[in-house]
Amino acid sequence: MRSGDDPGGGSLPGRPDGPDPAGYERAAEAIAAGVRGAGPEEVPGRLCAVVVGLLPVDGASASLRTEDMPVPLGASSSRAAHLAQLQATLGDGPCQWVLRTGEPVLAADLESVRSRNRWPVFAQQAVAAGVRAVHALPLGSDRLCVGTLDLYRGTPGSLTDGQLRVARLAAGMITVALMALPRGEEDEYRGSEPWLSGLAADHDTIHQAVGMIMAQLGLGAADALARLRGDAFAQGRTALDVAGDVVAHRRRFDAP
Predict the structure, then answer these.
(1) Average pLDDT over residues 174-180
(2) Burial 94-106 (b: 16+ CB within 10 A, else e)
(3) Mind spelling out the 3-state secondary structure of 45-90?
(4) CA geometry: angle at 68 spanning 42 and 182, to 5°?
(5) Which residue has the higher pLDDT, 130 or 193?
(6) CATH code for 193-247?
(7) What is the per-residue pLDDT for 194?
(8) 83 Cβ partners below 8 Å, 6+ apart?
(9) Phi-psi category of 182—alpha, beta or left, where left has phi over 0 and alpha has psi -120 to 50?
(10) What's CA 58's distance to the chain center, in Å?
């Protein structure tokens, strides 16, 4: 496991801390209650909200891994959703490191030298948005990371071992929900919406925009995606927003 940047972040009343089986059981019950009656597609968003009430964090988001950029699954607030989109747009941040390594990334202070060196642009943007610490955990198994659960704090601080156990429990339940979502042939049989249909539509928009930029500039896919991300960052927008403009022919990339 990657260590945090700085020590700190003690326990809070009523929140699991250290070797407290009773506290962990209460957290497990709260998590179960929070997703009771929810369909698999609702679980990530609900769990993000529940985790914020259980841990010393101010926001949470979950993202699904794809071949180019993570796709947001749910968030506890608009600010948490913004942080998830920011990491996707920049292609950098704790979420991206987790997707590359499959290991947790615990950044206890985004203004520390280590964080600024690791994620110079993301750290600056996150602090400007009122976030000082990010703890990102992988979704999936030891062999395959399928996404991340990202926890945001407005003040510097780390999570205790007991709090990390609760965060891992939530990550595990999000993973189970993803695995329980119906796939293509099951959708046709049940007459339901396609698997992750809304998220897939967003992902298709990114792919289509990248293809159009490739044609406009004569670039490869990686360079075209980098141009899309750079344009979005320069405008203070998300990559998905700019991709929508490209697909709708409201934005064209011309060679210099």
Answers:
(1) 78
(2) bbbbbbeebebbb
(3) HHHHHHHHHHCCCCEEEEEECCCCCCEEEEECCHHHHHHHHHHHHH
(4) 35
(5) 130
(6) 1.10.10
(7) 44
(8) 59, 61, 126, 129, 131, 134, 150, 152
(9) beta
(10) 15
For β-strands 145-153 and 133-140, DSSP reports them as antiparallel
Q: How confident is the model at residue 188 (pLDDT cuts 50, 70, 90)?
A: very low
The larger pLDDT score, comparing residue 39 to residue 100, is at 100
Q: Hunting for tokens 């396609």 — which residue is that?
A: 194
Once rounded to an integer, what is the mean pLDDT over residues 97-126?
93
Residue 52 has pLDDT above 90, yes or no: yes
Tokens of 206: 């990114």
Task: Pinpoint the residues of the chain covered by CATH 3.30.450.40.
Answer: 21-180
User: Domain 21-180, what fold?
Assistant: Beta-Lactamase (3.30.450)
Give ranges for CATH 1.10.10 in the chain.
Answer: 193-247
Answering whether pTM is above 0.90, one says: no
* E strand map for the chain: 59-64, 71-75, 105-107, 133-140, 145-153
